[in-house]
Amino acid sequence: NAGVTQTPKFQVLKTGQSMTLQCAQDMNHNSMYWYRQDPGMGLRLIYYSASEGTTDKGEVPNGYNVSRLNKREFSLRLESAAPSQTSVYFCASRDSSGSRYEQYFGPGTRLTVT
Amino acid sequence: AQSVSQHNHHVILSEAASLELGCNYSYGGTVNLFWYVQYPGQHLQLLLKYFSGDPLVKGIKGFEAEFIKSKFSFNLRKPSVQWSDTAEYFCAVTIMDTGRRALTFGSGTRLQVQP
Known about the structure:
The structure holds two protein chains of two kinds.
Chain A: E1 4-7, E2 10-13, E3 19-25, E4 31-37, E5 43-49, E6 56-57, E7 64-68, E8 74-78, E9 87-94, E10 104-105, E11 109-113
Parallel strand pairs in A: 2-11
Antiparallel strand pairs in A: 1-3, 3-8, 4-5, 4-9, 5-6, 7-8, 9-10, 9-11
Chain B: E1 4-5, E2 10-14, E3 19-21, E4 24-25, E5 31-38, E6 45-50, E7 56-58, E8 64-68, E9 73-78, E10 87-95, E11 103-105, E12 109-114
Parallel strand pairs in B: 2-12
Antiparallel strand pairs in B: 1-4, 3-9, 5-6, 5-10, 7-8, 8-9, 10-11, 10-12
């Protein structure tokens, strides 16, 4: 049981390049989330997916797109990277079938855009 | 929109000192409350959570937190810190009146424990 996994761990992009961050969970959770973490700002929600086939914007969605490929996988795409997207990105999942609302986080992807 | 405030940005303590980190949130409805810890170079781990019932909750590694509804607060405490508690601590809130159940995080408190 690996929990939440993310790839890659590190990435350096040039301005204007595109890339997809991958996230997968093996806990059979319905809900998945993408956050970004910036110094002094905590984590902010980019997008979330309440179930397979559904996605919705969070607090800071501009410049990102997401795909909930199946129940396990939730990817985050940067179509044209900008230096403002330099951040650490965390994926999380949550079991929405019961009353437990804690989220489980992946190890993060550290992205630098030059 | 709801917000979470952590007033202590950087705390430096000596080993065996007591710890209290403040957390306040701005939402009048039903919330779930969490404290997460991020050790250097690692991902976030859940320290403790409050859903309902006893407002004093105990978590891992000797941490506890008290929910005071009238003060919209959920402060984290530990009677005696250790060097291994050096980490960043995040308070987070989930609003229970919406379906999103996403976490709103505070800006974090960096705790440095000196041996």
